[in-house]
Design brief:
The complex is a heterodimer of chains A (113) and B (111). By secondary structure, chain A is an all-beta fold. Chain A is built from no helices and 11 strands. In chain A, the strands form 2 sheets. In chain A, strands 2, 4, 5, 6, 9, 10 and 11 form a 7-stranded mixed β-sheet that branches. In chain A, strands 1-3-8-7 form a 4-stranded antiparallel β-sheet, with no helix packed on it. Chain A starts with a strand and ends with a strand. In chain B, 0% of the residues lie in helices and 60% in strands. Chain B has no helices and 11 strands. The chains are: A mainly beta (113), B mainly beta (111). Chains A and B meet through strand 5 and strand 10 of A and strand 4, strand 5, strand 9 and strand 10 of B.
Chain lengths: 113, 111
Amino acid sequence: ETGVTQSPTHLIKTRGQQVTLRCSSQSGHNTVSWYQQALGQGPQFIFQYYREEENGRGNFPPRFSGLQFPNYSSELNVNALELDDSALYLCASSLGPGRNEQYFGPGTRLTVT
Amino acid sequence: EDKVVQSPLSLVVHEGDTVTLNCSYEVTNFRSLLWYKQEKKAPTFLFMLTSSGIEKKSGRLSSILDKKELFSILNITATQTGDSAVYLCAVEKGGADGLTFGKGTHLIIQP
């Protein structure tokens, strides 16, 4: 059984740029959720994808967008990067939107300068 | 506004001690409470609790939920240096709102 994987591991971008982060869900999992974790804070829910559609969204602006592909992998896109977007971005997969034993990937550390 | 509050925020104990970590919550439409351990990056799943008063146990770790008083505790007995980590409490609501996390308890076990 393959766990949740994310790429890249680290990323440095400049304010105003755009970034795409990638996530492969655990084998058999069809639901992917994305979280932003600032230093010293708990993860904050960005959105969830199920069957290639956004299934729920937290309090994040529209410049945070995503995709889910037929193989259940997912992308998180952030446009017009701001300094406050610097954080660890975590992807979590689960067996379904109502089955919330979510299993997390190792995350992508994004630094915006 | 939904809230998950963990205490203490940090804790330093000696190897062999027993620790109790606390999590209180105020959310609408509560469904379950989850505990995770975060060492470097990926939070790893520990427990999911849905019913009051039923203890979940895994080795030296155990957890219980009180849905009347809206809190949960995570106990770790005979602590080891490998237990050093941030322990996150999260609440799941009905619907597709994702998990609401607390800030975590940073636990340091000294040899």
